[in-house]
Amino acid sequence: MLRKVLLSLILFLFVVSVFAQETAQKQDLALLYPTHEAKEKVLRDAKIIKSKKLGTGITNPLKLTLLDGGTELYAVFKDVDVRKTGITKLKSGAEMDFKDSWQFDVAAYELDKLLGLDMVPVTVERKYNGEKGMVQWWVPNAMTEGDRKEKGLEPPDVDSWNRYLYKVRLFDNLVYNIDRNLGNLLITPDWKIWMIDHSRSFKNNDTLKAKSDMARFSMSFVDALKKLDEAKVMAHCGKYLTVYEVRSMMRRRDAILELYEKTRAEQGDSILYP
Predict the structure, then answer these.
(1) N- or C-end of the chain: fewer Cβ atoms within 10 A?
(2) What distance in Å separates the CA atoms of residue 24 and residue 18, rounded to the nearest whole number?
């Protein structure tokens, strides 16, 4: 009995130690790379000293270890770039004009910056082993939404949590993400949600993916949507999106704003949050 207690105590102390080390590393990285620009630069320029398969997802992403001076940090690399015309059969069903590209991950990050969301990790273009792809900032100490549900964990602030989810749903409708799942929403210890894996987004579809997902609206998000225009999006995302993909997204933007106005007229300001 005593032996079991001691083993449990040792395991507990080990977990606490690992968590403390990871938390300290996160704080150190935040001080070293405090801005988006600083993170973008290190992702582009730092030496890649190690890589391994993540073992999750169907696009075979890699976890990279980067060395910047004496600082080690992690990132994700993805180089998938598949585009098919006609009908493609997927596990989830048939998909017309299927697209799965790392370029959409970069575009999603650039769009996140334009909207001021700060919910897509810093993502840049970079070559690795001769292949062009995206490199994305590693979100430390994060669990997936699948992990959260499996462990039965509930957020301490339900209202704040729901606000994050409504932003996720609005963003997914804006970029027409067909692959949101429990594995590509990351949750940090402060219960912030990070959206990853947008390689199956930006379809040439003018309609919204799921109107019913949008029952409440962030005023700051709506204001940012109103300020978007094609020229601005092309300037930030034009390297990774065609003009047709941008125009389809702008028409979805218009549909979201129309839905917002309609819902607000019917239900009043109760649908709003900051």
Answers:
(1) N
(2) 10
Rounded to whole angstroms, the Cα distance separating 208 from 64 reads 35
Q: Is the pLDDT of residue 209 over 90?
A: yes
Q: Which two tokens stand for residue 137?
A: 């900032």
Query: Strand 81-83 and strand 99-101: pairing?
Result: antiparallel
Mean pLDDT across the chain, nearest whole number?
90
Beta bridge partners of 68: 71
pTM: 0.87
- How many C-alpha atoms does 30 have within 13 Å on its Cβ side? 8
Residue 174 has pLDDT above 70, yes or no: yes
Q: Is 77 helix (H, G, I), strand (E, B) or coil?
A: strand
Single-letter residue type at 31:
L
Cα 199 from Cα 134, distance rounded (Å): 10
Find the helix packing angle between 219-227 and 102-115, rounded to 10°.
110
> Alpha-carbon distance 1 to 216, whole Å?
53
CB atoms closer than 10 angstroms to residue 232? 11
What would the pLDDT profile of 213-269 be if each residue is shown by its tens digit?
999 999 999 999 999 999 999 999 999 999 999 999 999 999 999 999 999 999 999
Instruction: Check whether 80 has a pLDDT greater than 50.
Output: yes
pLDDT band at 154 (very low <50, low <70, confident <90, very high): very high
Alpha helices in 131-203 (DSSP H): 145-151, 158-175
Q: What is the rounded average pLDDT of the residues 128-152?
A: 97
CA angle 66, 67, 72 (to 5 degrees): 80
Alpha-helical runs (H) found in 76-229:
102-115, 145-151, 158-175, 219-227
